[in-house]
Design goal:
Structural class: alpha/beta
Radius of gyration: 23 Å
Number of strands: 9
Order of helices and strands: HEHHHHHHHEHEHHHEHHEEHEHEHEHHH
Largest sheet: 4 strands, parallel
Shape: globular
Number of helices: 20
Oligomer: single chain
Strand order of the largest sheet: 4-5-8-9
């Protein structure tokens, strides 16, 4: 039997019924990813599987890079750029036998099977034939960027975009549609990073130029962001996203924030207390902006970034040297959302945590602020980053089931820079069906409620996202 067979990850008859009858053929809504809008617009043709899988110029796969380093692969094969595509791919193939039980083993073989139709185990023995077969297919029109997206019946893709971005590539996609709606999503993190003073001042100048506003004060900053927010909305944007180490909800006054902002614009570094106050104010104002526009806001909480200083200097950010943070989130998170709810400015919200210890904390926090206006208004999001694997997904579903309504969950996203990450939706759907199928067969869910369970699978896999985001 093939490794990636029709019943992969489905351990019961009921799980198999649920997947094949209700989940398998549903469209995909990828409401958060990091695909390059330019690559989509230009309908990229990848040179080879190494570029697609490992060292794409837009962004490589830091999951694979971490595994390769752990397997003793020299950095010159990873971010060094000193070797041929085949030599780098050969190093990845040599890592695969050591990656058993790592999600990369499942993801890689799912992608080989679903994207390329290759039903072989990747290893040093099969590396050359797989390399050549993938490359031959990538040279054809059926394997260009847009075709790869359409191959998986993707209805909507939401990229991640900076307020300064002119969204030219999104305009080009809209003018030349290819069957998948591609929308921008608002990621204003650089306008929040006041502690990176030199970068912050340069960013404020760029933002002012993009908005046509000379930014001399914090109020000017918010006016510029509002102008760009309105422009993003005109281009179909209806989601924001924030990446943070924790929540921020310090008390502050408007005059304090103006003073801190002016201090930094003049070249001084803020104190830790000033940074916390500024971020607290910034996040509140952004959340109000989202609520007034009717957007969905997303908060990704808990990374500790760029921990290897030497490699950060050599390879830069997002190269595989980030890890899970352990800062407390409960008090500030609840205070933050309470302020918004008290002011009637709480938008639909999805919360993601990177530390699994925070699953129940995040889940109960979200459900403090559901108000009955929208089903699942406050969401505990899918397993993210280091938790985007079988155990992480199951634990996320367990926390959501025990402390809320799994049936209202908006389901999976790729959070990926790769055009062939869509089998992760299949992986998620198989795990979801396995979780529910086991419960039915153990008598934890009544067998006579199978129609309800089938509807639940369809909703989590597709319908809930379609209704929640209202794209």
């Amino acid at each position: 039997m093939s490794f990636i067979n029709e019943d992969f990850m489905l351990s019961t008859d009921t799980a198999r019924e649920l997947y094949h009858q209700s989940a398998e053929h549903l469209p995909i809504i990828d409401y958060h990813c990091h695909l390059s809008p330019r690559q989509i617009a230009e309908n990229i043709q990848f040179r080879d599987i190494t570029q697609l899988w490992l060292v794409d110029g837009h962004a490589g796969d830091h999951y694979k890079w971490r595994a390769m380093r752990a397997n003793g692969v020299d950095e010159s094969y990873i971010t060094g750029g000193g070797h041929s595509a085949w030599e780098t791919f050969e190093k990845w193939a040599g890592t695969m036998p050591y990656a058993l039980r790592n999600p990369l083993y499942h993801w890689s073989h799912l992608e080989l099977k679903r994207v390329f139709g290759i039903d072989k185990i990747l290893s040093p023995k099969t590396a050359r034939e797989i390399f050549e077969e993938c490359n031959a297919k990538l040279a054809t029109p059926e394997f260009r960027g847009q075709a790869l997206i359409r191959k998986f019946n993707v209805e909507v893709v939401c990229t991640t975009d900076d307020p300064v971005d002119d969204l030219r590539w999104h305009r080009m996609i809209a003018e030349h549609p290819f069957g998948t709606k591609v929308l921008p999503a608002w990621r204003p993190d650089k306008a929040m990073a006041i502690d990176k003073t030199d970068e912050f001042r340069a960013y404020v100048a760029a933002l002012g130029e993009a908005a046509g506003i000379e930014i001399k004060s914090y109020r000017d900053l918010q006016d510029a962001l509002q102008k760009r927010h309105d422009y993003f909305a005109s281009m179909g944007c209806s989601l924001s996203d924030h990446g943070m180490d924790r929540f921020y909800s310090e008390d502050y006054t408007e005059s304090e924030i103006e003073s801190i902002f002016s201090k930094v614009l003049e070249g001084a570094c803020p104190t830790e207390e000033e940074t916390v106050k500024y971020i607290s104010a910034f996040l509140y104002d952004q959340a109000v902006m989202d609520a007034e526009a009717g957007w969905v806001q997303q908060f990704h909480i808990g990374p500790l970034r760029n921990n290897n200083t030497a490699m950060f200097m050599q390879a830069g950010p997002d190269t595989g040297y980030d890890s899970i943070h352990d800062k407390p989130i409960a008090v500030d998170g609840n205070r933050f959302f309470d302020r918004l709810a008290s002011d009637g400015k709480l938008a639909r919200t999805i919360l993601y945590c990177l530390n699994p210890k925070d699953n129940a904390v995040m889940m109960t926090m979200a459900y403090n602020f559901n108000d009955g206006t929208v089903p699942g208004k406050m969401q505990f999001g899918s397993g993210w980053w280091f938790l985007d694997q079988e155990v992480g997904m199951r634990r996320q579903m367990d926390s959501l089931s025990m402390l809320g309504l799994l049936s209202r969950f908006v389901g999976m996203l790729t959070d990926s820079r790769s055009f062939i990450s869509y089998p992760r939706h299949e992986y998620f759907r198989r795990i979801l069906c396995d979780v529910l199928g086991k419960d039915v067969e153990l008598g934890k869910i009544p067998a006579e409620e199978m129609d309800t369970v089938h509807r639940m699978v369809r909703d989590i896999s597709y319908n809930n996202a379609k209704n929640y985001f209202n794209f």
